[in-house]
Amino acid sequence: MAQVPQTFFDALAVRTWCGLALTALGRAREEIDAINVYPVADGDTGTNLYLTVESAATAVEAVFAGYEAGSGAGSVPAGKPSLADAARAMAHGALIGARGNSGTILAQLLRGMAQVLTAEGETPHTDGNGLGLALRHAADSARQAVAHPVEGTVLSVASAAADAAEGAEGDCGTVARAAYRGACVALAATPGQLAVLEHAGVVDAGGRGLVAVLAALVETFTGELPELSAAVSAAAAAAAAAHGRVEAARAADRADDVSDGEDRQDGESREDGEGGPAFEVIYLLEAEDRAVARLRQRLDALGDSLVVVGGDGLWNVHVHVDDAGAAVEAGVEAGRPYRIRITHFGADDAHTRGGERPPRERVQRAVVAVVPGEGLAGLYTEAGATTVLARPGEPPASGELVEAVRRAHAREVVLLPNDADLRHTAAAAAEQARTEGIRVALIPTRSAVQGIAALAVHEPDRRFDEDVVSMTSAAGATRYAEVTVAERQSWTMAGICQAGDVLGLIDGDVAVIGSDVTAAAETVLNRMLAAGGELVTLVLGDEAPEGVAERLEARVREAYLAVDTVVYRGGRQGALVLIGVE
Hints:
- By secondary structure, this protein is an alpha/beta fold.
- It contains 20 helices and 16 strands.
- Strands 13-12-9-16-14-15 form a 6-stranded mixed sheet, with helices on both faces. It has a 4-stranded antiparallel sheet with strand order 2-3-1-4, with helices on both faces.
- Helix 6 runs antiparallel to helix 7.
């Protein structure tokens, strides 16, 4: 069924575009991965673009959900979000979720568009002319974010799309079609611009991904998905026909890394597709503009493929280096880096592993868990789980959970989402992993304390079904609660709360509204233990007041003699205190 077209760029158009782009990249992901030979032949460009857009789409959906939940409740205005709300959410979501070289550039493209769409002025940039301006600013800002732009890449495709859009006159649909056609022509030309593409017989993978995103833009404003151009059709054919050549190019790349790695100089360009640094380093960075300018110079001297995107105090940094530690240290000097991801090119990866090293044997069973803070991540890791860190306001996307399942490298995986809101995300990740031949059981844990209970009875030597039943029973027998601070006025099961009030939630519902964290936590604990229990688990966040654990432990000793208490430090976890009662 054809998509109902949007007539101009508003919040709904942003939402529709993100959803359609995610679908388009989902269809094309394997094809794009297969033709990925530049800047590193690691076969993950399609996946990285998908994860980047998934993060953007999730952020936009959260904005709409906030308005829908708050309509008439006094917490947010009734109605729907503005274009500025949606566009900024899209840009922020892409920024914090950007993966890989192409994903980071795509995040800057979306940020550049958002800057134009949300600009204040007498003429709103919501029509065809505004779309053209947005695409132009997006292409220019993305090019500026790359330390050493190379033609024949996604940058060339973005510039061509912007050129074509600027030359078009009409509504958003007309401009989007022109941009798409321009991008397709530029994509077809990429092998003639970059030798490594010509040698492998493929077009640029990042550019192919951008064409998919622009096709979704056309569908947003016309209601019809444009027919694949000859360039895109050729790319699809090349993905299959050139698979052997791509793998040969990757093998040659690995051989060159081994033979001349000692002779390679820091910062050497990867323009020929061969050689290059050993690590990809990505992190989010909170820093001032002046510090980021110095960071660019420092990282440019350390390696290549440097892309720094963002602004307003938050940046996404991507670089390929031989000294990963130095790249992270540079970030520490500039500000506060976090969500640091370091990938060793060729380490245990099906796309980059040569015949000289046999694949690592899969373990029989593993546990993958989403955890809300660094402290709990350490606890879960010590217990043998593979963890995905969910920072406050930054829930993981399904793609991140799939990556974690793959990283666990097991035939059987038990997945613990530890959050009721992640149920559908975790289910999608489990389904994807099953298509890859991994047996996955999803236990619907709604809190990290339920996950702790499940992990405590995990026995990998048992039959899989028996282990899952035991873990599910332990999680289900654990009541959970949290003490947090209200961010806004809203209606609750316990009455109306104001911003700044202390809230005690039991099994997801607000049960206590107060002004003192320790008193609220004690009230919550008493209510939970009134129904019985043998073990109390307390997880303290970084901002929990001093003495709260001691007071709760004392209360348990005084009133519940047969109940034991265990305390963990959760780190920066969002909630001030998590409570579990088994």
